């Protein structure tokens, strides 16, 4: 019987080195950090320098660089058509964004191999995620590979559908926003209800025989009832969008009005069964079992009741 022969050593080592090189080239780089930039819209990151991380490098050839220099010279009123003027070159660089110049295509001189798969947009003033896809396409080499995004401590009021366009997303931070907030009219109704309850207790009398403690207790009970009504009116339906992220492992939503709903935890875990951490707390087997049991009894009925009528 003929024995198997191992591949030649040089060929074997060549294959191994190619695999190792491919792994290094796909290594994840540090997060691109746009936190504390006072951003009011996502597209602003295209013109902002990150605090740290490596944004996409725009590689241009010599002809494109010269054309940009000539355009900058015209726009800036710089004399000369050869594009050698220092001011024209600086304007061209500003027009073209982050870039490198060299013979043929430019190459990043100091950037390590790998791709950026994480971005921080926390602690800003973002009220929507309009333009997120376009913005990430400008700052990330491969936006479809996004795995980690921090949107905490902004002014978001909804879970935007654009987040579902990144199927490799494993970590999503949304804590400290305004997700699930009721319209102002609903909040005003609750405030009016509490005020009316307080007025009723005061109008009930003011003589020496009245019990101030009873009045205070009645007012507190009315306020608690209003708060319960408000919590029940918070809709959890927006969480359903996150069920389209099969790789989501860590999610934060605490510090949002949506957290006040009495079925918040069970609903989120039933929609996102792949979660391992919710609000920085590990998800246990008991948590999963409780969520599944709740979903089998209540979720369909709750969703039908919370769906707006035509």
Automatic annotation (TrEMBL):
Q: What is this protein called?
A: Leucine rich repeat containing 51
Start and end residues of each stretch annotated as Disordered: 86-114
Q: Which organism is it from?
A: Thecamonas trahens ATCC 50062
Source domain of life? Eukaryota
Coiled-coil ranges per UniProt: none
KW Repeat (keyword) present:
yes
Task: Kindly give the InterPro entries that the UniProt entry links to this protein.
Answer: LRR_dom_sf
Sorted alphabetically, the Gene Ontology cellular component annotations on this record are: cytoplasm
Localization terms from the record: Cytoplasm
Key words of the record: Cytoplasm, Leucine-rich repeat, Repeat
Classification via Gene3D superfamilies: Ribonuclease Inhibitor
């Amino acid at each position: 019987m003929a024995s198997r022969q191992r591949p030649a050593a040089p060929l074997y080592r060549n294959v191994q080195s190619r695999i190792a090189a491919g792994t290094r080239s796909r290594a994840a780089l540090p997060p691109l950090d746009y936190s504390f930039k006072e951003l009011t819209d996502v597209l602003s990151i295209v013109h902002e320098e990150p605090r740290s991380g490596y944004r996409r490098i725009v590689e241009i050839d010599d002809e494109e660089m010269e054309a940009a220099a000539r355009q900058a010279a015209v726009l800036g009123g710089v004399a000369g058509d050869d594009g050698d003027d220092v001011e024209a070159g600086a304007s061209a660089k500003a027009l073209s964004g982050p870039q490198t110049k060299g013979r043929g295509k430019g190459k990043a001189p100091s950037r390590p191999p790998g791709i950026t798969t994480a971005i921080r947009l926390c602690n800003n003033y973002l009220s929507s995620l309009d333009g997120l896809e376009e913005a990430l396409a400008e700052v990330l080499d491969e936006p479809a590979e996004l795995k980690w995004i921090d949107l905490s401590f902004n002014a978001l009021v909804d879970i935007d559908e654009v987040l579902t366009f990144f199927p490799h997303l494993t970590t999503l931070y949304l804590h400290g926003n305004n997700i699930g907030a009721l319209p102002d009219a609903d909040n005003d109704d609750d405030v009016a209800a509490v005020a009316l309850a307080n007025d009723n207790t005061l109008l009930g009398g003011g003589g020496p025989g009245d019990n101030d403690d009873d009045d205070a207790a009645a007012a507190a009970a009315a306020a608690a009832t209003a708060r319960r009504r408000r919590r029940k009116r918070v809709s959890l339906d927006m969480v359903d969008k996150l069920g389209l992220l099969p790789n989501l492992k860590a999610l934060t939503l605490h510090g949002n009005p949506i957290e006040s709903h009495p079925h918040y935890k069970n609903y989120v875990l039933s929609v996102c069964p792949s979660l391992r951490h919710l609000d920085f707390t590990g998800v246990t087997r008991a948590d999963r079992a409780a969520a599944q049991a709740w979903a089998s009894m209540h979720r369909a009925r709750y969703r039908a009741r919370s769906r707006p009528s035509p």
